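Repro case for the chain-ordering regression, as requested:
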Amino acid sequence: MKTTVAQLNQHIGETIELEGWLIKKRSSGKIAFLQVRDGSGEVQAVASRAELDDASWAAVESLTQESTLRLGGAVRADDRAPSGVEIHLATCELLDQSPEFPISPKEHGVSFLAENRHLWLRSRRQRAALRVRSEVCQAIRDFFYERDFVLIDSPILTPAACEGTSTLFETDYFGNPAYLSQSGQLYLEPAAAAFGKVYCFGPTFRAEKSKTRRHLMEFWMVEPEVAFLEFGGLCELAEEFVVSLIGRVLDRCGAELDVLERDRTVLEASVAPFPRLTYSQAIEQLQAAGVEIEWGADFGAEEETLLASQHGKPVLVTHFPAAIKAFYMEPDPDDPKQVLGVDVLAPEGYGEIIGGSQRIHDHDLLLRRIREHELPLEAFEWYLDIRKYGTFPHSGFGMGIERFVAWVTGLPHLRETIPYPRMLNKIYP
Amino acid sequence: MKTTVAQLNQHIGETIELEGWLIKKRSSGKIAFLQVRDGSGEVQAVASRAELDDASWAAVESLTQESTLRLGGAVRADDRAPSGVEIHLATCELLDQSPEFPISPKEHGVSFLAENRHLWLRSRRQRAALRVRSEVCQAIRDFFYERDFVLIDSPILTPAACEGTSTLFETDYFGNPAYLSQSGQLYLEPAAAAFGKVYCFGPTFRAEKSKTRRHLMEFWMVEPEVAFLEFGGLCELAEEFVVSLIGRVLDRCGAELDVLERDRTVLEASVAPFPRLTYSQAIEQLQAAGVEIEWGADFGAEEETLLASQHGKPVLVTHFPAAIKAFYMEPDPDDPKQVLGVDVLAPEGYGEIIGGSQRIHDHDLLLRRIREHELPLEAFEWYLDIRKYGTFPHSGFGMGIERFVAWVTGLPHLRETIPYPRMLNKIYP
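-- result from build under test --
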């Protein structure tokens, strides 16, 4: 019967049929060991010249890296194999012989691999990283679905450059300029008034002329927004969210973390509660560690790394100076020069994975902030409406999932955490 | 204790606290009936002047449509209430008094509602439609997750105008033109070679100068792609998918379908197997019904409606003329002027909800098709690579979810099936 590699351990002792690609082959002339993948997993098939008919042996001999094949044989348990099974080959059919595959087991330069992303996807590490991404995305959907959040897909095409056009991709929308969304938050807040708990999870865009391992021009962001949720509850939600996602990856992506040689220590230690420190405490810690930084300055990658690495698990930094945060953040009632914002910093140098806040829900205060920030008022009229007609305290956060996936997989660069990365001067294929 | 409307039936006989918005109020001067919503649902609270303190009664009196309130009271079972419960009010606090809400229970014109989409979202029918959308989206994710598909987010920013620029949104990508994606399919096929079964589900864009109830400029599309899946299996997958989604909506969105006054007859009848007819048979049926159409012509809305309405459930139309379908569709081995494409047509006038095909996997044939269609070869080189290095039969389809949601909810226009619709000359808010 036809099956997949992932299902083989349910067919031990049986004769099965598989279709897939050759990863590599070792042959002594009388016995050949085929490493085969079919998308669901990898398995070794053992071919013995003496036991195969001529056509099957010829097929085995003609297999090159990435050739497609159909094989038949008996499934045997094999404790040494990562899959736990091995196939004793009975028949082999060459479906398509691949010419020399551009990506061989030898080392390749990053730009060569990037140009061949459509083929690089087949490599073991790339498959592992993107399987983790896929699992994380489903875990995110499940997290919010189970908590009765309503999915509100925010628009990509937006009419106004709310905070300046410098990092926006622009397009022509039937004669008017439109911009690719950098966040769904403004569109979620009205929906929170309709559904209470909402989230969006889609692509976002940032035309930033920066070329670092932490930036992509197109990335996916998940953003929950909750009516009547205040700052304390927001911090709990963010913590619960991160803990839940890490648990899911540890639970279901063990094989992928093995392929990526990910040390699980920090992931396993990342259980609740996460350490919390105010921005002011963070500044003191940094100063004590010898960093030259004054109250009021934003953290750079170095500061974030230092703050998070001290605890061996993610850290929540709260109560930032208003001046370095977005206009819509609710002031701290105890000290209005601070805002009720929270960043979650990942350890091991991965920096900010979540940024969130309670939002200003007082109409006049928000109006004042828009004016202070010299933002175009007409673009925010509908946003102000949410404070006009039955306003309500509310809070939300955003998480760029490539950063999160990079951290849990231990990958140094975001480009391997998304199927087709868009970077500065890099949009092919 | 603080709770939500959706949870009230677990607190019958208890005293609870709720925060939400006033939908409307009826008052006799001594007794007031408040209809309250909190995002999770709607409930009636009964306020008696004699039992409330002055502050609470004053709050009740000051409540206007969409004012926010905090109420406390006892939960009582009430069989007449849609929620099954009613609240006997003990305390009421006005959180924010709303000025006259622009969208009152009276009728409003469509363009007024569209301009106020951020407020219109709060209306009962809009909430019902978007809750169905949210459920459908999760059902789609679950369908593929449970079947071991890997989510492959295809890029939005793409470097080449593969099939002409006329319906593409263009942007400047650091000095080069880039285009917003109309489909993830080309990016999924390489991933199918890595993961076997993949899908993408994200926003897609079509700058089409058409203003019909069936078109949006920005819409969400789900596209599975499966390695070693041939045409018969594709038709089964599409059928299983639609049946599964309808079942989920019937199972979990009963209240929403009630609000939308959706006749469930056709949905309940939409179980497997769906009728299948070839394009040629469809042409004969249309001609027999008096439609003037010749073999070779594409179906319009009228033809789709007629074909699907005869069966009272979705219909699969297969084996289209090659000339009216995309260049990458596999020819029918029995008749090469036809292709192995399938459209799923929804009944009740909703037309095509799914379009799919087996893809050409022969390198030279695909190359010939690209040339015949006068497509820019250099834009397809990486796509051809998938046929060069271990090619494999594969198939996939795409479903625009707004069309599907419009059908299951019985909504006449796509604009109510997406939170913030983008239509011709309509991109606000």
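Ordering looks correct now. Chain A touches chain B through 89 residues (CB under 8 Å).
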